[in-house]
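Z., the sequence and structure:
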Amino acid sequence: MPQEYSFVTRSAPGNGTAAGHTLPFVRAARSASIPVSLFLISILLLFAGTSSVSAAAANTVSVTNPLDAAALVYISGYDITPGVFYQGETGTATVHVTNAANTTVFVSQPNLIESHVRVLNGDSFTTATAIGPGETTDFNFVIIPDGTDGTYFPLFTISTNVYGAGAIHSQLKLKVDSTDIRTSISVKPDTFSISTKDMVNVSIVNPRNGDITNVLIVPEVNGATISPDESFVGTLKAGSSVQVPFAITPEKATSVTFHVSFNNGDNKHTTDLVLPLTLGNDKTGAQMVVNNIESTSAGSTTTLKGDVTNNGLTDAKSVLVTVDSPATPVNPNPVYAIGNLAPDDFSSFEVTYTQKTPGTVPIVVEYKDADGNTFTQRFSYESNSNGADIGTAGSAGIPSGASSGTTNNRRGGMFGSFGTGLNQVPVIPIAIILVALVALIIAWKKGLLKRFTTRFQKKEESDEELMEQ
């Protein structure tokens, strides 16, 4: 008759994180007579308790009586969702129970015991559950931690339907943390400008010990255009952060509310972040300056000349210069198209207009930024003076009668070259040259040139004779 031994094993508390725990073969049993071979196998299972479910199925132990089979049922792991609870949040605890015997074992009365953890579905386990050879059965508990922030160790217990076998039990690890995510605007301009697109970054930081999922940002605003309409971040790992860019173009002074939502387990959370859109001058945009203004009149038409300088930090595109009421722009240069002005660059302009009574002439400089937004700056010129005052910048549409084309930057030469299109031709110098040519032709035809040359030759001969004498 083979020698027999008696032994008892007790469970140890789980010491992993909340999800995907694997526990060693755990069993609290009454003393029983077990053959030496079964004793050695049990010792091996004790050290191999971290093996997977498939490995357990492939390495079942042959037993001959129910008590030995019950001794081979153990808690192989557990999962808790969410990984870290908010206070009073609902989650799940799933415990994996594995049967390493070669015969089916019935278990019953699974329970989760912790004074600070409520089990909402405790009445769901009223019947016995059969666990086949090498199989693993999951027991799911819907729970709500009622305690304050901290770590709790609820005790899981389950019994086999084998007379004389003890309960199987192990502790689970559960964390509660009320720390919330943090949101802020990490990148934004000092001030926003009407019809100007600026970039802002929404920063989300997850300082919690657990991941959050389905992170979504949806901006809401009245009086501004925002792109994109929403931004999906997805999963944000514990202790990590993310920067989410948005492009904002204000139409008036207003505020943007960023609705940030996320899931902790199956629990949805939301928080709002408000960004006021304070309006002001764009410190990095183009800034027009008009100087060296002078005017000349011919009949009822006045010609206004001057220089436009870009004193800003970015390019001014499609620059146009004209005048406004009470002056009336007229041909040949009602609107002067300069084109593009880089920072610190300048160009001359010439505008023609009529004005019924002397007084202030508003000079209007219109330009666009890289996004096609149109801006207008106005300057005042007294028609009886040579000074100009810088006006205030604003947004406006293209003035009536504006030329649709643009030209390269121009600088005034000796005679000047003003206007657009054909007006770029230096008319005055060409006219003088043409008049001189016509006069020479007429003098040649009438013999005036021949008489002049003959007289010049006779004068030279007379001078030579006097020198000989």
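The first strand starts at residue 4 and ends at 5. DSSP finds five helices and 29 strands in the chain.

Let me know what you think.
H.
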